[in-house]
Amino acid sequence: MCGRYAVAKPWNDVIEALEALPEDAAAASHAATYNICPTDPAPIVRAGEDGGARVAAVHRWGLVPWWAPDTKGAARLINARSETVRTTRAFRDAFKGARCLVPASGFYEWTAKPGGQKGKIPHWIHPEDGEMLTFAGLWARWGPKGSDGHWSFTILTTSAAPSVSVLHDRMPVVIGADDRERWLDPAADLDGLMGLLAPWEGALAHHRVGPGVNDVRADGPELVRPAAAELELAL
Questions:
Q1: What DSSP string describes 101-161?
Q2: Are 6 and 224 in contact (CB under 8 A)?
Q3: pLDDT tens digits, one per residue of 52-83
Q4: What are phi and psi of 178, to 5 degrees?
């Protein structure tokens, strides 16, 4: 499961690191954000047309397949289980030819409070070295011909790595730097790509954060800072 994540770097830096060209002004100027929520607009990187340069674009989080009657179900399709991505109707077409990278500085997970207390404790999960992650994603365009359409994406999930399993049994699929080109290649062998959909072996760290991230309107670097000592005791 991945229900919240962050891109805590200027988008221009992300574009440069992923060797992509912005699709439009919105993609070029997308600001760092620390609380990306379902149906929010967020940056992704797609393969370029006809083998051209990678394209950086802003899509909405929550896949809307081309055949959907409307966009109302987007929030239910923010994640795609990697184990069934080739057979699930909502995702199988996109897996064949509309794969993308979803840049992220890290993601959030919640655990139950001890002693039967109400509410949950948020945690920030991120690479120990502070480098940018790229999640495995799928994208789609929905809408009538002649319209700009509704552009969306989903994040693939897999079993949690040991460092994450203490918080949750699922985590986003991370595509390492050496495999990004392969993941985006429209002609890639699909059987071979399934081998990439495994728990990430890189070093991940996590710590408790304050309840501010629970508010979908909240944003800012304070959301990923470790919870203050007095707050940790209260949790």
A1: EEEESEEEEEEEPGGG-SSEEEEEEEETT-PPEEEEEEEEEES-TTS--EEEEEEEEEEPP
A2: yes
A3: 789 999 999 999 999 999 999 999 999 999 99
A4: -70, -15
Q: How far apart are CA 101 and CA 134, in angstroms?
A: 6
Does the structure show a pLDDT above 80 at 27?
A: no
The span from the CA of 173 to the CA of 76, in Å, is: 18
Look up the CATH superfamily of 5-105+132-160+170-202.
SOS response associated peptidase-like (3.90.1680.10)
Q: Which pLDDT tens digit goes with each residue over 183-206?
A: 999 999 999 999 999 999 888 999
In this structure, are residues 64 and 71 in contact, taking their beta carbons and an 8 Å threshold?
Answer: yes
pLDDT in tens, 1-25: 689 999 998 888 888 889 998 887 7
